[in-house]
From TrEMBL:
It comes from Thelephora terrestris. This is Kinase-like domain-containing protein. The lineage of its organism: Eukaryota, Fungi, Dikarya, Basidiomycota, Agaricomycotina. Residues 105-374 form the Protein kinase domain. It holds the Pfam family PK_Tyr_Ser-Thr. InterPro entries: Kinase-like_dom_sf, Prot_kinase_dom, Ser-Thr/Tyr_kinase_cat_dom, Ser/Thr_kinase_AS, Ser/Thr_Kinases-Pseudokinases. Keywords: ATP-binding, Kinase, Nucleotide-binding, Transferase. GO terms for molecular function: ATP binding; protein serine/threonine kinase activity. It comes from the Eukaryota.
């Protein structure tokens, strides 16, 4: 099949016009981008950029500028974001605008390590503190996957989502920079502030953040207390979302699944089941598996402990395969875990993914339980 080269040329020409400020009318933007990006074979087109003497980095930067002048809620904006993600994935490049504009100095050692990343503490020229998540990348296509995920993470904007400031390639090749959260993660915060923390308010923020991700077709893939950071206002911010494709590379090298790593206690049975069945194919997290993980986070919020705290991972897998779940903790109704909320929790961790409510349903029901008559989105 012949590659439609004219479509690539016209797209690049148009994007240069945007970068030069020659096109400013919103209607022109919509019409011309629709023509340039309308083909189903867009990803195939961009693979051919160098043969047309089109610099991929310039093309990516110009597409990024085009996106920034479009209405975020518009269909064409979403199509352009997908196009940018595909293009960055093809070439393993990111827009220049995604690089942080301040100089960071990191410490001598990582301050924390996770399943597929290390966290470094860094400061800028003014002494402001940042967290730098450095991904461990082993496979040849890792940079491409990293770039695709950065595009998504950078564009998520919600009070309950950890805001990514950008990347710092001068510091680490594959990393993401965010503000340092002095309050730590959800469990740390709960255990330091047990006497006065509003657990329902924390849950509200977690649910709202997950609702935002799912509305934007983003699967978190590793929802747990350790990946929920608390900002200076005491609000939860979901972190490490959308990195399941990178985790896939890490765990596939050892012939395992992400659920067999440090997240088995929060992983849905359909993910954990791929371990016991010795499946060679990676089982991808879904919005339904996110809902299961949310149920485990609810348990954490009211107990201050991880799910199945007295069991090792292998025991947890056996318990889950039998359909066992955490018991309702005693004396928690005064904290907000009323019968209706516990019933919702049980529905969220149903063995069958299809029987779990979606996040919009969870949000509506949670709000009806904690504040009848008031709906939040």
């Amino acid at each position: 099949m012949t590659t439609p080269r004219l479509r690539v040329d016209s797209s690049a020409k148009y994007l240069r016009a945007i970068a030069n400020g020659d096109i400013t009318a919103p209607q022109e933007v919509v019409e011309l981008l629709t023509k340039a990006l309308g083909a189903k074979d867009y990803a195939e087109c961009v693979k051919d950029l160098p043969s047309h003497n089109i610099d991929p980095q310039s093309y990516i930067d110009e597409l990024d500028k085009a996106i920034n002048i479009l209405t975020p809620e518009s269909d064409i904006h979403e199509r352009c974001v997908r196009a940018l993600r595909k293009t960055c994935g093809v070439y393993g490049l990111l827009p220049d605008s995604h690089e942080v504009k301040f100089v960071l100095t990191a410490g001598e050692h990582a301050v924390a390590s996770g399943g597929f990343s290390d966290i470094w503490k860094a400061t800028d020229e003014d002494g402001e503190v940042f967290a730098v998540k450095v991904l461990r990348m082993y496979q040849n296509n890792a940079a491409q996957k990293y770039c695709r995920e950065v595009i998504i993470s950078k564009r998520m904007n919600h009070p309950n989502i950890l805001q990514i400031e950008g990347v710092a390639p001068g510091l680490f090749p594959c990393c993401m920079v965010s503000r340092w959260m002095e309050n730590g993660n959800l469990l740390e915060y709960l255990n330091r502030n047990q006497a006065f923390v509003d657990r329902l308010d924390l849950l509200r923020g977690v649910i709202r953040g997950l609702n935002y991700l799912h509305k934007h077709q983003v699967v978190h893939g590793d929802l747990k207390s350790y990946n929920i950071l608390i900002n200076e206002f005491g609000a939860p911010c979901l972190a490490d979302f959308g990195l399941s494709s990178i985790a896939e590379d890490i765990y596939s090298m050892s012939g395992s699944n992400a659920a067999s790593g440090g997240s088995v206690r929060w992983s849905a049975p359909e993910l954990v089941g791929s371990i016991t069945a010795r499946q060679e194919r990676w089982v991808h997290p879904t919005t339904q598996s996110d809902i299961y993980s949310l149920a485990m986070v609810i348990v954490e919020v009211f107990t201050g402990k991880i799910p199945f705290p007295d069991a090792i991972n292998v025991q947890v897998i056996i318990l889950m395969s039998k359909g066992d779940r955490p018991s309702k903790p005693p004396g928690v109704e005064a904290l907000g875990l009323v019968p209706a909320l516990w019933k919702l929790t049980e529905e969220c961790w149903h063995q069958s993914p299809e029987r779990r409510p979606d996040i919009a349903n969870v949000l509506r029901r949670f709000q009806a339980i904690v504040e009848p008559g008031l709906f939040i989105d």
